[in-house]
Amino acid sequence: MKPERLIYTYVSMAGYVKNDWGQGAPDEGVDHTAATAHKYGVPVTWMVNRGSIPLLRERIVQWHEEFGDDVILRCPTFARDAGESPLRFKQLLKEEWAAITEAFPWVKTKVAGLGIKEGEAIRLLEECGFEGVWGYCWEQVWWDGITNEGIPWGFWYVDKDRYKIPAPEGGSMVACEWTARDLHQAYHTANPCIYSTDPNDVLRAGLCSGTDVEYWKRVFQDYLRNTEHNDHVYFVQQQEAHEMENSEAFSVFPAADVEACDQMQELFFEYLRTFPITVTTLPEAIRTYKRQNRETAPAYMLTEDPLIRPEVNEYTMTLGGVGLGPWPDTFFYYDKECQMAFVKGECKPRMLRSYVGKWNMQENFAEEAPPVFVTQYAESGQAIEMMFEIGHWKPIPFGLTYWQELSGWKVAACDGAVDTKIVEGKLLFMRIALTGAPLRLTVRLEREHTS
């Protein structure tokens, strides 16, 4: 592992709200959140707006000086706040950001936070010079009115005209995940809301408690192990400040749940601080991504079943129950053209999504995978040779995996592959492009010789 490549950020939604579940700025919740995070040297990225800045400004300025806290904008909504008017939305963005720069002149990076429901908002944010947008939800369907199924996880450059797809060339605005998901179980159960790093969700599901965050530790380990074969692995965690208080203004959850979530976060902060990871703010993480990548970077994630299951209760039964597994090791991959998932032992992807040429943002970009045949296979002590064949198939980005104990092996030849990578000595990944013509892919692996 290379833990310094894991970039951890903690975000807290702390804007003024006016809803049936609460009204105002989360005064107590902000203090509660800050006290626990700062105890372990975790800087908080506060998501604020004009309504909450007057109340929170002095505290955040002090925390910025002492702990490196930063701010992003709690973005107005295109539909509700702007009435679906592009001019009105741009004016609101201008006014909100002016309030931020006046209160916090040290802010260097324009980042907006919102639940990603509207493509028009993404286009207008980029036109207004925003460099990042937080709030995407990998695999999510329906929950909170957000359906983001089909998007990548983590960080990627969003296409301003196709808000669920990576930009095909270069990139300007970095899309960021709402909160890190348990990729393995979210995929196999199609229930990303329960299998996540959101404190209230895992508490209600019975995956964690105020005395036990073993589930979060195992999810974190899945991300940490993948630092070996990624330049960076991004791990975002978020908790709404209004969910960290039980008061006249906000009582979304009972006081016992607030206390349990605080204890869970404390246990997790203590745990992640035992590793030499990079702990920073969301704006700094976005700047790092933009410095390192001119376009969406390929992401490689080998995951395993954490073997911790939720309770059967009112919350976990909301969407018809939760699958209980167990499930095999699974390898996930995405780049600017596609996203794939491979189950251990299988050569072709069980999940294949192509972003090339897609325009309908109401779909999840799924593609049928073609039949794959291994027509030659030979293994000796020093070499492995095989040939993959695929017949006529429409042009799409594609990939193959070969699952085997490959520690100490290297790729000597893989004619026709766009990219190859041996992951953790457990599998060979081959990124290819189907052109419409039959494909014959020859692969040779050789043992590495050490002097």
Rough outline:
globular
Number of helices: 9
Largest sheet: 10 strands, mixed
- The separation of the N and C termini measures 24 Å
- How large is the radius of gyration? 23 Å
Question: Which regions are unreliable across 5 or more consecutive residues at pLDDT < 50?
Answer: none
Tell me the total number of β-strands. 23
Essential attributes:
globular; 23 strands; 9 helices; 4-stranded antiparallel sheet; alpha/beta; 10-stranded mixed sheet; 451 residues
Can you tell me about this structure?
By secondary structure, this protein is an alpha/beta fold. 24% of the residues lie in helices and 28% in strands. The chain is built from 9 helices and 23 strands. The strands form 5 sheets. Strands 1, 4, 5, 6, 7, 8, 9, 10, 11 and 12 form a 10-stranded mixed β-sheet that branches. Strands 13-14-15-16 form a 4-stranded antiparallel β-sheet. The protein has a 4-stranded antiparallel β-sheet with strand order 17-18-23-20, with no helix packed on it. The longest helix is centred in the N-terminal third of the chain and has 18 residues, at 86-103. It is globular.
